[in-house]
Recover the amino acids of this structure.
């Protein structure tokens, strides 16, 4: 059972059928926030939603916030891009923990990409960040820290990939043709066993 606090929906998801079923609007474990903390959280959610809408492809990303068991604000950003006709898919998952008492943020980013044209190439990257000091634990400062860190990391990953393309690393990863210089014909009737 899952609860989406942003939409206020409790639901179950069946991965075999890919069907989600709504089971109500109340969480089994509601956050116990007073009005001041709820207003604070809603303000941060608005800032994060604006950041996601400006910096992620429309319709591919979602952000959620909660106060975790340690009492820190946890921000999760997930983005999935698929382009199956071009034989690729990618996923960006970021988790940011805001220490509101010490005005600092820590984060973790996972990147998973899969290219599958005439073979499979995957890369999975994972990186921790922080602690990153912020001027205050408000929406604009939290978003600034996340944006600067994610942009810097994305740029460094792109540099690595560009160098790999220049050096021919990815070309060498592709399947090499047999000695005959032609692809093997798996549909050759002579190969069929009676």
């Amino acid at each position: 059972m899952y609860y989406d606090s942003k939409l206020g929906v409790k639901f179950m998801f069946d991965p075999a059928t890919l069907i989600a079923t709504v089971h109500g609007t109340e969480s089994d474990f509601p956050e116990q926030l007073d009005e001041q903390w709820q207003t604070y959280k809603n303000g941060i959610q608005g800032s994060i939603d604006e950041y996601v809408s400006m910096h992620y492809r429309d319709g591919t990303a979602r952000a959620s916030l909660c106060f975790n068991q340690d009492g820190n604000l946890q921000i999760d950003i997930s983005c999935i891009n698929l382009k199956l006709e071009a034989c690729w898919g990618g996923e960006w998952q970021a988790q940011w923990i805001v220490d509101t008492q010490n005005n600092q943020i820590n984060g973790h980013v996972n990147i998973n990409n899969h290219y599958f044209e005439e073979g499979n190439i995957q890369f999975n990257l994972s990186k921790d960040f922080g602690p990153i000091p912020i001027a205050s634990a408000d929406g604009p400062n939290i978003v600034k820290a996340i944006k600067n860190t994610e942009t810097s990391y994305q740029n460094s990953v792109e540099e690595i990939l560009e160098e790999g393309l220049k050096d021919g690393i990815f070309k060498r990863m592709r399947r090499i043709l047999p000695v005959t210089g032609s692809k093997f014909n798996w549909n050759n009737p002579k190969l069929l066993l009676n």
